[in-house]
Specification:
heterodimer; A: 189 residues; mainly alpha; Rna Polymerase Sigma Factor, Chain: A; 9 helices; 0% strand; B: 156 residues; rod-shaped
């Protein structure tokens, strides 16, 4: 179904049209949120909030950009807000995470039966994601959209509302920073 | 090309961002250098991990969850929307007001208590002064009585 028709129907409070839109774009939204949060259940919770926000503010969407661009923007903002709020409460969550760590590793790598293999994969994921999380915010947004959603420079520029040359520069610096962090880690280990 | 130069370009080599001349030079170096080959393999594995970790599977319950939340959403009222938007500023204002109110209340109660105590002391003092006046007046009356009785006895 065409996005313009879907939006028209959603504006008329057609819940079936909204359901079709959720089905069509759930992958995009969940994967984008996951790119920032690196946790399946958090990504799904935030994705749910994204769709609720879309439903609430559909009247404000003026078709000036593509629906997917708007969804990317909301997903990025919601994910970054979630990270910011979580940082504030990190003292309270550290204990929960400690107990959930083992469980989540098994859920994350269901194909790996060997505990050694699970540990290695977990370490690898933590190293890569830690390096991405430590990037400056704009570099992180550009890199995550580029890597997780395979967006073109033009599409990332539209989502971030900056020029294509700025995106090129952001991605160059993001890759460079990531390389330094990862190579330092590999050399130490 | 030395190891430093190669290691500075590894990620761009993997991503295919380099000019073909550079790529050939890096390939040649890596065939000879075990350290750079190790770093290249590790970096490649990390980037491949991101590719594998993407969330491409759709969750059949996700749509149901979203629809349930949307259906349970109350009808939007402009005032509620405005309150939602301004919730942080409203929270800050309310907390500030509460603090000011608490200080004012404390000041008022504290002052009131002192005033009440002072009034009680003053009242007590006034009563005792009145009592003293009354007692001295009583003495005066008694003296006059004695004088009158004595005069009667003397037939005056």
């Amino acid at each position: 179904m065409e996005d313009t028709y879907l939006l028209e129907q959603i504006r008329l409070n057609n819940h079936k049209a909204f359901q079709d839109m959720v089905m069509k774009y759930q992958g995009l939204v969940i994967n984008t949120c996951y790119g920032f949060l690196h946790n399946k259940s958090d990504a799904q919770d935030i994705a749910q909030e994204v769709f609720i926000e879309v439903f609430r503010s559909i009247s404000k969407f003026r078709n000036e950009s593509k629906l997917s661009t708007w969804l990317y923007r909301i997903s990025v903002n919601k994910s970054l807000n979630f990270i910011r709020d979580n940082k504030k409460n990190s003292w309270f969550q550290s204990l929960d995470l400690l107990f959930e760590k083992e469980k989540s590793s098994k859920e994350k790598f269901p194909d790996s039966e060997n505990p050694q293999e699970i540990m290695e994969k977990e370490e690898k994921s933590q190293t890569v994601y830690k390096a991405i999380d430590e990037l400056p915010q704009n570099q992180k947004i550009a890199f995550t959209l580029y890597k997780f959603e395979n967006l073109s420079y033009k599409e990332i520029a539209e989502v971030m509302d900056i020029s294509i040359s700025s995106i090129e520069s952001l991605l160059f610096r993001a890759k460079k920073n990531l390389q330094v962090k990862l190579i330092n880690y590999y050399k130490k280990n | 090309m030395n190891c430093g130069e190669v290691q500075n370009k590894l990620i761009f080599f993997i991503e295919g961002d380099l000019h073909s001349n550079y790529s050939i030079l890096i390939k040649e170096h890596i065939e000879k250098c075990r350290d750079c080959k190790y770093l290249l393999d590790q970096l490649k594995a990390s980037l491949e991990f991101i590719e594998k970790d993407k969330q491409t599977e759709t969750n059949p319950f996700f749509v149901t969850r979203v629809m349930a939340s949307v259906n349970s959403e109350p009808k939007q009222i402009p005032l509620i929307n405005w309150l939602r938007k301004k919730q942080y500023s409203i929270q800050v204002s309310l907390y500030s007001l509460l603090i000011v109110a608490a200080i004012a209340l404390g000041h008022y109660l504290g002052k009131d208590k002192v005033t009440v105590e002072m009034e009680a002391v003053l009242q007590e003092k006034e009563i005792s002064d009145n009592q003293l006046v009354a007692e001295s007046y009583q003495f005066q009356i008694n003296d006059e009585d004695v004088y009158i009785i004595k005069a009667d006895e003397n037939g005056e």
